[in-house]
Amino acid sequence: MTRSRVAVSALLTLAMVAVGGVANAFSFKDVTKGFHDVSKAISNQGSTVVPAAGTLEVAFSPDEGSENLVIKVINSASEKKGGEILMLSYSFTSAPVTEALVKAAHNGVSIKLVADYKNNISEDRSGKARAALSALKTAGADVRVIKVYPIHHDKVLIVNRDTVELGSFNYSAAAAHKNSENVLVNWNNPKLADAYVKHFNRNYSQSTPFETQY
User: Which enzyme class, named as a word (predicted)?
Assistant: First the structure.
């Protein structure tokens, strides 16, 4: 029996017990086994377990430090020779974030960015996203766009393959100053970074080069 069928069977069993229609037909052992089967089926759906390590730092929006924390993470890439930033984004219009990335590129940091095509190109009515992406590419970054998913909704920075920034925060002025958002940084956790690098590489392989648009 497949994992999905086990899960469905277990859920049906639990539902029957819950409504009392066959309350006497199942023992407590049957019920707990059902929970175990469901848990096992769910846990085997491709998730990755990573040991806790490093230091966590959080910030929030609007105007509660989220944008500053993102920039802090970007700036940290320059502290290491041969620094690297791998970035996944949905919205990319933030001037301060773009400026920090351009500065990092000028300091020799290798930068790769994969951004959502629809949000930043085909529906970029203001032109801010294309201008930001163009500035970053002109600075020497490897800038790409992706359109194989309905929405490329990742918001992730991976710095020097040991620090990860993630959360709901889009790289935009609205995320910094208007919306309720959160940023979480796990400093110095190479195993977590490795898991995100694999996700980045998958999306990078499905993306196409961005052409500068001024």
Answer: hydrolase
Indicate whether 88 and 153 sit together in one domain. Answer: yes
Does the residue 144 lie in any domain? yes
Q: Residue 19's domain spans which residues?
A: 3-43
pTM of this prediction?
Answer: 0.79
pLDDT digits (tens, 9 = 90+) for 60-80: 999 999 999 999 999 999 988
pLDDT at 12 > cutoff 50: no
Q: What are the φ and ψ backbone dihedral angles of 171, each rounded to 5 degrees?
A: -85, 75
> How would DSSP label each residue in 16-70?
HHHHTTTGGG--HHHHHHHHHHHHHHHHTSS-------SEEEEEEETTBBHHHHH
Residue 50 lies in a domain: no
Of 94, 99, 84, give the one whose Cα is nearest residue 115: 94
Give the number of domains in the chain.
Answer: 2
For residues 24 and 14, what is the distance between their CA atoms, to the nearest angstrom? Answer: 13
